[in-house]
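Thread: quick sanity check before group meeting

JM: Hey all, I'm pulling together slides for Thursday and realized we never actually wrote out the predicted structure for the chain we discussed last week. Dropping the sequence here so it's in one place. If anyone has concerns about the input, flag it before I start.
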Amino acid sequence: MSEKMIERNLVVEKNERVAAKIFRMELSGDIPQLVAGSFVEVTVEGLYLRRPISVCESVPGKGTLVYKVVGKGTAQMSELPKGTVVNCLLELGNGFSVPDGCKKALLIGGGIGTAPLYQLAVELRKRNIGTTLIAGFASESEVFYQKEFEKICDKALYATMDGTLGHKGIVTELLDGCEYDYYYACGPTPMLKAVTAAVATDGELSLEERMGCGFGICMGCSLMTTKGPKRVCKDGPVFRKEELVW
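JM (edit): ok, ran it. Output follows.
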């Protein structure tokens, strides 16, 4: 087991749909302050594998998960009523870091990969670091946390593939005019690859990957990096730009 991993029985305080197939679950209990970019593994009754969900918001005693219904496990999660006790593994993976000298940060999210960037935006604001968000979705119906991001970020830009909100196209087409000295990105691999090629500054990327155990034992989420094989769940999900091999 991970040196920092903890197991907790937590109470569902709220579990509501916030966009098309997107749900927001508030959990309470013995929860420490969770690092932006880390994730939680949620036990789903009747299923062998837990579901890894990124932390969207965190304060001591409370954690918020924003997740997309993509299969049986997350569909079952979306039906959990208030008061349900769920067993979770906490403090999994590494999170985002803030380099010395960072003054303006660019946050780039793709779909549900935008969720962990909210906690990051909150933490950057506390450090008086300027933030610009670029978030990409298939359609306006899938957009979540728009008001929340617009409140916490200096600027929030949106791209949708069908043009129903913001720019019609992809996130990299919104880079011109953005001021930043460091970037953070989370989303599907093709987006991360395109962002890495388009952005010249240093940065960190959170990878989306199918996981088995979630804490580094099964090796099912391994990938090759410039520093050798790494596990997304244990050594990631956040990696520095220079570590990734596309």
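AS: nice. DSSP finds four helices and 15 strands in the chain. Residues 116-126 form the longest helix (11 residues).
JM: adding both to the slides.
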